[in-house]
Amino acid sequence: SISYSAKNIETNELVDLGKTDDTVEIVRGFNTKLLEGKWLLMAKGPQGSGELEITTKSGDRYLIPYAAEKADFSLKNYGPYQLGQKHSFLLELGKPMQENLTLTAELFPANATSSKDRIEHEYLIGVDKGIHEINFKSPSKAGKYKIIIGKGFEEQVASFDIEYVENAKPSIKIPNSVKPKEKFAYDLYGNWYRNNSLQIVKNGKKISDTWLQNTIEKDGTYLSAPDKDGTYDILLRYKDASGKNTTTTLAKLHVGETAKNDDISQADKLVFACQQESCTYDDKNTGLKGIPLLKGWAIEEPYFYATATGVTADIPTITFVNTKTKAWFILNPRQATDAMFDCTEFGKEGRLSNEEKVCIPRNIPDKALGNIVTQQENVEFWRTASYEEKEGSPSRISVGKVMSAEDIADFRKKMGLEK
To answer: Residue 135 pLDDT > 70, yes or no?
Structure first.
């Protein structure tokens, strides 16, 4: 539906020219009468607009260049992705596309310079608000790529960085506990394809088996909990790097009253939980020492990310979890998605690279905010003290106590760090 009007540039007189409904991409013209002079022709719809300056001349025909508003896209990035396997990518639209607008979602190498470099594509026609699934075949080599939304490489509306690796280990994020029959959100990483399936199993008996395509809703991806209390296994059935159908256990799902007695510190991924006022943790695998933890905080196994070519990151990736409030944050996430994280950078150079961030979840409960900020500050202090060196300053400090705001401010001042 488009409304047309004309504004006299000299007198500011405004004339209503009419309206067209159920329009297609090319709108048929209509006749109107305007006095001689300079006019601004305007076309306006709920999802676009256009205008054209003219000097009227009887019998002339004018084309108003109507353009749809840019769609608001984001990507739920569940990478790094398994090389050699087809993947589903979940685009999220903050507002609907114009019904007759056609855009293209395209997969390109990160260093692409033109549309000729395109690997795969899929059309988007009048897509509604919410999550929309697109499917791309895998590129031939591991590395960095990008998904571009637009009208070809030259007219981009949005661009998202992704990565393929030789061997992607699937993982999942779920609530620590759910109610029986409750619908709960999940995030699955590493191998997200519509024909993969998530299974809920107890004592070897399959309770449910759901294709990933059937878990997609307008605002996220969801599973349904079993109808009885207990602890269940969540399994993923997918194709591995060799193309073989594989089933792997991803996590424990705690359902109902029994979940209240399950301490998160017993989860498979957590290697240490602090039961005192404050603790430090030394990790043998990475050689990290003095990782600070406040009471009630636990730590997942730290690691240094390695690419398919064997290049290892020089800074660690660590997930911290509060065993009581369930708040959590990640130090140096490999790929932080808009859906999951709010990220803040730190370090003496104030770097903004993906590897130099502390990420915390959105919508933290007020009761958990103060504690998570203190824990995060301690981690920032330890990270800075351990890896950011300055002439005349110690190269490494192990933090073995709760650091006050004054302690941190004093240290930052000595190191010449910005707050």
So the answer is: yes
Mean local confidence (pLDDT), 177-197? 89
Do 26 and 59 form a contact (C-beta atoms < 8 A)? Answer: no
Cα distances (Å, whole numbers) of residue 322 to 79, 176, 188, 291:
25, 11, 21, 15
Residue 158 to residue 161: CA distance in whole angstroms: 10
> Can you give the pLDDT at residue 393?
34
Q: 405-415 vs 366-387: helix axis angle to the nearest 10? A: 30
Asked whether the CA dihedral 31, 35, 41, 42 is positive or negative, the reply is: negative
How far apart are alpha carbons 67 and 416 in whole angstroms? Answer: 50
Q: Residue holding tokens 């795969």?
A: 120
Residue entry with tokens 């509306």: 157
Separation CA 55–CA 32 (nearest Å): 14
Alpha-carbon gap, residue 194 to 78, rounded angstroms = 13
d(CA 94, CA 257): 37
Q: And the tokens for 73? A: 């896209």
Q: Give the Cβ contact number of residue 404 at 10 Å.
A: 11
Average pLDDT of the residues of the chain: 76
Tokens linked to 13: 């007189």
| 170 or 264: which leads in pLDDT | 170
**Calpha distance 42→62 (Å, rounded):** 11
Predicted structure pTM score: 0.51
